[in-house]
Amino acid sequence: MKIWLLIGCWLLAAVVLAACAGHDWATPADIWRAIAGDTSMRGRLLLEWRLPRVLAAALVGALLGLGGAVFQGVFRNPLAEPYLLGSAGGAALGATLALLVPMALPQTVLLPALAFAGAWGATMMVIGISRVAGAVDAAGLLLAGVAVAAILGALRSFLMLALSDETVSLQIVLSWVLGGVQTPTWSVLALLVAIALACMGFALALAHGLDTLGLGETMAQSFGLETRRFVAVAVLVGSLVVAAAVAFGGLVAFVGLAAPHIARWLVGPLHRPLLPASALVGAIVVTLADALARSALPPAEIPLGLVTAVAGGPFFIFLLARRLRK
Hints:
Blueprint: H1 2-20, H2 28-35, H3 41-75, H4 87-100, H5 107-132, H6 138-163, H7 170-177, H8 186-205, H9 207-213, H10 217-222, H11 227-249, H12 255-267, H13 271-295, H14 304-325
């Protein structure tokens, strides 16, 4: 209970700090007055622009942390994360298609649908390639993921060059690909909350199976787990979580890798506490990274994906070196 209270306090502190941060810094008292109904221009800006963005960043981070924990559990690989396994790249390719190709359906429907299809398809492609190549260990999955992510990245760049014209701003697509949370309306934020809660429910339903799968496929089957079917369902859920995060936040690297590791240090390896803890840690990380992206170089804004990549790259190297020494 004490550790959950501590994580909750960290998240609250991160949200308050992020709400204060920006080109024009505010105080906690300003935030409180805005919530209480301050009708001044400053109060309205804080309530209608900054607070929804801070909360959206926290939810995107929660989804990334949750997706990373699911993928690390299903692949039994602590280095697995949506960005390295190609699922984030697949979601980005699907979302780029939704942004650049005119279709009959509205973009609000197309973007999450194509992002999900891309995330699921890329993850299944990585699994298929590693099985065909006979390299189903951690290194084989990572190499297949890196290769698929590179191919999808090249396809995405080609689509951006070939399909962008004067009717579609390439800068909008680029800023989205580099990662960044846009300020949602309160109704869209409510939809994101509902999606995040549904994803958490789906993930928690997998918790016992992920613990059993961690014992090894043979042992898991002896406990009655249909491993092939369970892995397919778990990959589907992980892809859904990643697609939701990418649809609302673009490509934000390494949060799905770092958050489950930090959460594992705090609550242990069992997935029932690990999944919500990973979501909370991911929320803290992205909330702080988004605050830094907004306030470091005013009035310009650093893409969120660049901030998390600069911080997460060394963390990944540390984890890889630690694993190789074992």
